[in-house]
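Protocol step 4 of 6: structure prediction from sequence.
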Amino acid sequence: MKLNYTHADDAVLVKQYIDGDEPALEALINKHQQRIYSFIYSKILNRDETEDIFQETFIKVIRTLKKGKYNEEGKFLPWVMRIAHNLVIDHFRKAKRMPKFQSRNDFDIFDVISDGEQSAEQEIIKLQVHDDVRKIIDELPDDQRDVLVMRIYKDMSFKEIADATDVSINTALGRMRYALINLRKVVEKHNIILTN
């Protein structure tokens, strides 16, 4: 019987792939690619580098599966996200964040001699903050979380959000407002310090 890849559970697809069914991997990648790509892009903010890290992530996934070392039963996406997250941190460590020159006319010597180590460390702290924010966002009601993610991470306009969620612009705006109010409450409740 042919497997229906579209509706198959991750654990089933992983097992199929390990058993030699190549299209099962393609189905897994297609299923999660948007989420993983968006996650990497939200940290890197560069399409080419995001593309590289995205491919590297799946090369690691394939190697681990082929070696039979995968044991995250049924938790495929969080496992892949962790690989992507580690590769992003490696990327910042390797790059040691060379100074970026703003398109300003005045040349600042401190742009050149800024301490690369410090920047890499700051990036890791920033990633941790992003992680904390993601966890907080997950505590929101679905409708509020969806609007917030579309607005902040996908940079969609409220009109696009309204169309995508099939509600009026006013409803979308209202959900965003409640999402921000609730976020503030969660931050205060957990005593989280969000600094860059």
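Step 5 (inspection) to follow. The chain has two domains: 1-95, 122-196.
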